[in-house]
Amino acid sequence: MKNKDFSTTLVVNTQAQQVFNAVNNVRGWWSENIKGDTDKLNSEFFYHYQDVHRVKLKIIEMVPNEKIVWHVLDNYFKFLPDETEWKNTYIIFDLTEKKGKTTLKFTHQGLIPTYACFQICRDAWTHYIQESLKDLILTGKGKATPKDLEQADTNSESQKKTPVADQQNDKCIYHRLLIETPVEKVFEALTTQEGLAGWWTPDTLATPKIGSILRFAFGPDYVKEMKVEELKAYSKVKWVCLKAYEEWIGTRLTFELEPHKKGCILWFRHDGWKDYTAEFASCSYDWALFFRSLKRLCETGKGTPYPNYNQ
Question: pTM for this one?
Fold first, then answer.
């Protein structure tokens, strides 16, 4: 069987010129971590995601409102045996306008099922085209990877930590699991109100912002509140517990994401427990069930949040 290049099609109710302009605004839908011109024929630009993925691309074809082609000149993947897997492939945007609607066909020519990165790259491109680029076209704001911040503002009020007791002898709940979907989707599930409601509890109030207070209700009589201490796009989320059962208060919850050829690895720590109590043991088991719910949500679109998390 002939290998088939990855392709996905997007149809929007707008003119081709608007779609063409949005595609060329690569920082608006793919990543803010891009250097170089992205809207000029024969220009070269560079993309990077932390130290995990780096790409050098050249715009080799540009037909206004009809077609854009990028040539991948060089590529590096940290997590693959063949670090250069994208090299000498082509990324193609074909536009067709008809009766006020524009069809965008995206093709990564050379990204084929035999590639080790095919699944994760397919899912990532689907996210960026079907969600981020679509949002940019229709609303003016996409879901591009935010610009890397080399150094946090330690003087910022939002960066101040909530004090906790000495943690020298504290106990820790620790989990690790593979989720077969890109880090972008998992990060969204860990930070947005819709995402958190989809795997932890439907009664969620959440804003993805450092310093914000997240509220999670489990039935009419029990509420947890978490303060967001750290948000690093697509790699780290950290909360401190302000309200819950007494043993939870002051504990810290850290979610770290590591890209993997099949999706991403979630590393989770729940630090600050004072002893190995019955609540500690019960909480460790419940987290495992809720992470199964998170995995289901990210991989299938439907989680099993409270009260059905143990099914």
Answer: 0.76
